[in-house]
Amino acid sequence: xxxxxxxxxxxxxxxxxxxxxxxxxxxxxxxxxxxxxxxxxxxxxxxxxxxxxxxxxxxxxxxxxxxxxxxxxxxxxxxxxxxxxxxxxxxxxxxxxxxxxxxxxxxxxxxxxxxxxxxxxxxxxxxxxxxxxxxxxxxxxxxxxxxxxxxxxxxxxxxxxxxxxxxxxxxxxxxxxxxxxxxxxxxxxxxxxxxxxxxxxxxxxxxxxxxxxxxxxxxxxxxxxxxxxxxxxxxxxxxxxxxxxxxxxxxxxxxxxxxxxxxxxxxxxxxxxxxxxxxxxxxxxxxxxxxxxxxxxxxxxxxxxxxxxxxxxxxxxxxxxxxxxxxxxxxxxxxxxxxxxxxxxxxxxxxxxxxxxxxxxxxxxxxxxxxxxxxxxxxxxxxxxxxxxxxxxxxxxxxxxxxxxxxxxxxxxxxxxxxxxxxxxxxxxxxxxxxxxxxxxxxxxxxxxxxxxxxxxxxxxxxxxxxxxxxxxxxxxxxxxxxxxxxxxxxxxxxxxxxxxxxxxxxxxxxxxxxxxxxxxxxxxxxxxxxxxxxxxxxxxxxxxxxxxxxxxxxxxxxxxxxxxxxxx
Length: 569
Known about the structure:
Blueprint: H1 2-18, H2 24-37, H3 41-48, H4 53-64, E1 67-68, E2 74-75, H5 78-83, H6 86-92, E3 94-100, E4 105-110, H7 116-125, E5 131-136, H8 139-149, H9 156-165, H10 182-196, E6 199-206, E7 210-217, E8 220-228, H11 232-243, E9 254-262, E10 265-276, E11 279-287, H12 289-292, H13 303-313, E12 318-323, H14 330-341, E13 348-352, E14 363-366, H15 375-382, E15 389-392, H16 398-409, E16 413-418, H17 426-433, H18 437-443, E17 444-456, E18 462-464, H19 468-473, E19 484-486, E20 498-509, H20 512-519, H21 524-533, H22 539-548, H23 554-560
Parallel strand pairs: 1-5, 2-9, 4-5, 12-16, 12-17, 13-14, 13-15, 15-16
Antiparallel strand pairs: 3-4, 6-7, 6-11, 7-8, 9-10, 10-11, 17-20, 18-19
């Protein structure tokens, strides 16, 4: 193990240098840090922000032929543990990490990833139908994990039965972090289940006599379990300990963060505690950067809209706004754009409330009202930090808007969000805040309007013939045959009929004629009509495209977009 890792470490540095991903100085810094911490060199570089997790995976794949995993904060996948007996795990020094039922793939951590015989024996014991993917992990961590995890029930029902029939020492929760503690396993099992179901939020909601647990999946809340109220105090303590919050304080709101290893990757959780009449309500926002940050090509834009967006972000100065209601994916789009622009050639600085995804090389600051660091004062301070690109989390008031436009006017590229229903609606909204029309006209590069819709499950979506009214809504010839799809529900989508979400977008690029209309206080109607003549595609038109392509249903698009608005303009 040590010889392989040492050799891999040397090659990792060489590969990164040869590819000009890191500099000699950065390598020396990482090597110096390694002498103190004895961590793997690649992990140190990620921690220091020199490379991303994705780059580390690629380099390790190139140097060792496999990936790696950190087991220090592993949350175990119950389905994976069921597949590998303890005797097999101990004999081959392997630990099952996650099992993907859709791809029939089992990920296992091994101290010797080149032990082909052990992998073959495991595949044979599984009947040969499951694909096994080994990843590299520390031998000591694997041994400790096997001792701590095996022998204890990791299923939700099993853990609940254990708690109901045995006595739980709630006092030990604040200090103990062992799988022998059933409440620890219960919380871990819930978080692992939420991540496997692609939930974006986990709600722990105390009621008068019970605790309700709900997940937000594809933008819709779903009740998962209900526990007796006796469980809640211990669960709340465990969650607070994990998030570094004050377990003795239950009268004021608290906010915290934590990072866990689930399904073989690091996942951040943002924790919010709010006192209610029945106890503290705790909501966890799941921040999976692997899923949350996409490339521009994967945003699902049409070729025309993608080209328009690329032209907009190529401008060296000015402002780009993203509009839409809460939960419409504005932050994800912003991070995807910043990730595209993030190189050593530019200084990117952000001011957010709060910071959701941490990006290497980007200077990220969280708004803190407690020390009087709001958006307006934060922008003023950032402009003294020699930035090229500035992200302002949200334009809420005149002071923030004024400072954001001042940054755009002084040679910076500025990105921000605004709560309006449409891209065109951002212009009267800014005017209402107090921004002069000629300032808007000269400095806004473009505006993106956005919504999120659910994707139909590919396994069970059902084709049908729409009515004449539906064809009219879809702007389709009522005399022509047409098949579109609707949800049905199956085991693959947990009987929801939908699985995953995609973005509907409208992109308004401010050209010279539009600048003139805005500067002369043209009506929203006139601005929209000119934009349509120039090829502007509305949210409704993008939604219709998604329906006709079979990605979603008419009912789903109608839920978030007014399809009848096209007939009144």
